[in-house]
Specification:
Layout: E1 2-5, E2 11-14, E3 20-22, E4 29-31, E5 36-37, E6 46-47, H1 60-64, E7 66-68
Length: about 80
């Protein structure tokens, strides 16, 4: 279990094998584990759980998310 801080300050807990995800369409941010997919378990078509737009696995906010150490400090 790893926590990430998104650019807006939101902290999200991500459990492996999932990763930070976000939607550039509606602004949703969270774990890829919350997203839908139509590709039999791989992440080639990850859909936003809020607006159903594809590409939630590569949103700008998720790409900028920073992993947080247990102490609350961002990792370098």
């Amino acid at each position: 279990m790893t926590q990430y801080r998104y650019p807006n300050g939101q902290i999200v807990t991500v459990i492996e094998p999932f990763y930070p995800a976000s939607c550039d369409g509606c602004g949703w941010q969270g774990s890829s584990g919350d997203c839908g997919t139509d590709s039999w378990g791989d992440d080639s078509d990850v859909y936003c759980p809020s607006c159903s737009r594809n590409g939630a696995d590569c949103g700008k906010a998720a790409e900028a998310a920073v992993r947080i150490k247990a102490s609350g400090q961002a990792e370098p």
